[in-house]
Amino acid sequence: MRQIHYTSSEQGELKHSTPRKEGVRVGKLIVLAQPDRTALNEYRQRLNEKSYQVSESEHFVICQHPATNQAILLHLFRPEEANADLICFIENELPSSGIIPSTREFGATLFAILASMYLPPRNQQAIWLRFCLNSLNSLRDLIVHPSKNVPAKASYIAPFAAIYRRILELVTGQSLLDAGCCFGFLPVLMAERDYSMHIIGSDISHDAIGFSTRLANATEAHNVAFHQIDTLSNDFPKLGHFDSVTAIHLLEHLAEEDMPTALDHLLQVTTKRLLIAVPYEERAQALYGHRQTFTPEKLHQWGMWCIETLEGKGKYQYEELMGGLLIIERTLD
Prior knowledge:
This protein is α/β, with parallel strands linked by helices. It folds into 2 domains: 5-122, no CATH class; 131-330, 3-Layer(aba) Sandwich (Rossmann fold). The protein has 9 helices and 13 strands. The protein has helices at 37-49, 85-93, 103-115, 124-144, 157-170, 185-193, 206-218, 259-268, 296-309; strands at 5-8, 22-26, 29-33, 53-56, 61-64, 71-75, 175-179, 198-203, 224-228, 242-248, 270-278, 314-320, 324-330. The strands form 2 sheets. Strands 9-8-7-10-11-13-12 form a 7-stranded mixed beta sheet, sandwiched between helices. The chain has a 6-stranded mixed beta sheet with strand order 1-2-3-6-5-4, sandwiched between helices. α4 packs across α7. The protein is elongated. The N and C termini lie far apart (47 Å). The model is unreliable at 1-20 (pLDDT under 50).
């Protein structure tokens, strides 16, 4: 993860006009949480008087200095509100300003926004855990009480709640592997439903394994473990065999030429049911690290490829689910 620096806002430039506030710096960007709308508007005005170009989106005020390329991001989020929907807000509202040019800056900006809600000293692990617990609580609520009024582009959590609701219905057997587990939400949700199930989450990211492990510990999901491993690694099949295997929004992060290896490895560890969910995008979302797009036709082709790889000892189904869902069943004959 990119290095984050904590700094007094504007390095004292505004110290005579406003109280000094502790901000979080990411490169040339400083993120500042404001206590209320009045304070935000006052700070915005001060920056405007300092020749900053100021623009406002639904959740952020973006202040950029054309001479120095310095940018200050103001917001009103509080720790109890900080969940994975922030990912969607950042994607929808900030890239056009040019302050998030890559996946690396996207993750760093997300954490800077989270960290700015807290007073120093800031505990990075505790901040991420609060974020994960808030997101998990929202997922639980939306899984039980589906919202039909939240557009997919307006929420990160609502589409995943719909996906997880269906996946939880489809998981079979007494063991589960979630490949590309990210924050570990699905393994923990599954563990809460079945305390006896053997559950493993895997991810290529060291940070993701840390997030997932701390979330599982905090929720006392004792039947869950996490392993850092690349799905493309030759060692991936050594994770063992699982009745159900899930790959939820994993494959779009891989190059097309890596698809046969990834699917072969996923099939090798699946004894009963492989569940694959992908988004449908007009273009690969680079901010999320996506490397390819999917269509229903393409997903059907990979479904048929899986059945051919199983030498006919299986079948597949397709569903529309916030994108596409492949359900691949292994059969004995």
